Amino acid sequence: MSGFSSAFERLGAALAAVVLQQQETLAEFLPREDWSADLTARSYASGGVTVRVSLLGSYAARERTWLWGWANPQFGDDHPAVAPTLRIRELGERLGIPEFTTPEIDLGWYTGPAGHGGELVAMAAGGVLGGGGYIGAGYDGGSAYLHVDDPQAPPAVWDPVPVPRLLMNAASLFPRDPRLTLARLLSHHRVPYRETDGVTEVPLPGGGTARAHFDALGRFLDWEAELSPAGLSPTGP
To answer: Phi and psi for 28 in degrees, rounded to 5?
Structure first.
């Protein structure tokens, strides 16, 4: 595999802003200090906080490959930390997403803005599962990626202020369809919106309207917010 599949890129674009926002919420909840994990018990502890996790997969830095938990001979389908993630593979089979069904993915070709291609696989996988976000747990030679499946991990709440930043960051990682990225974020929070040529209009809490502008190729241009009745001037990203 050289380059991500079209199906993976589209799914990533749909989920990217939702995942990035949830990652910020998780970072506020879970201290990133000295950590320990017991995957058989599905637990991860850091800074005095313990959460339930499952194993998505791991990224090997030297080989630049992603290995799914179900394909790792140390774990497999029946391992307690892997079984909750199998619907990712099922979705891949159903929608024809090879990244979700290939046991070990060669990511040596990746030269994008993420630290490595495994970050994008973890983002998409975490987005499919929803929940509290994902954790990159470093070890000698790479990182294991754990999905936080714990009701004590708070969900991200709707806030229009960071939307342009989230959208720009998401589009830098998954540039396939920024309009889809925004639409999925709004739908996730059950926020109504209206799409016209090159513009997505979003009502703001307390009155007013925000408008996301896109060019003819669907690329995100800017975000303006007209607040009412305060009469504040529009703001950009």
So the answer is: -75, -25
